[in-house]
Amino acid sequence: MIKVLCFGDSNTYGYIPSSGGRFDKNTRWTGILSSDFEIIEAGANNRNAFSDSPKLLTEYMKMQPDIVVLAIGINDTQKFFNTDIKDAIEKLVDIILPTPIILAAPSILGKNILKHPIFSTMFDETSIEKSKKLPEIYSQIAKTKGCKFLDLNTCTQPSEIDGLHYELKQHKIIAEKLHHLLLNP
Hints:
By secondary structure, the chain is an alpha/beta fold. It has helices spanning 10-13, 29-33, 53-61, 85-96, 125-145, 168-183; strands spanning 3-8, 38-43, 67-71, 101-105, 148-151.
């Protein structure tokens, strides 16, 4: 069975937009994939690409995955950070290589994030503008580094509730897209 490391943020973790809880294993995208792959779930709420991620990713790579789904970066757009997102993602990719990678560009933040009681304190208009640049940045990295690329904007969008996280239906769509990429090198 193919061993897949899914390293990312709250959307990899399975954060529920309506309650702040976690989707169960059978409904979050990482869990859906576990029916056909050995999944190492490594998603965490509020994880960004630069702080402790390089160290954590290095530790996870000791588990010797066959392929890595790298789905991180939206938190780097927070108004508190002035991250060079391209540099941060490239550093993570370099930790993973030569293991094959599916680089997943996060969905662009929805405007309703600005009205959310919690996330409006973390993200602003500048965050939304930064998020619009992520698909192109990730695409360039994927081409340069020889990764597979999935632009989540082409298949899904964040919840109307918070403009950040995915609903149940989106988790299923993400799992379907990744399933295809994992089986078709």
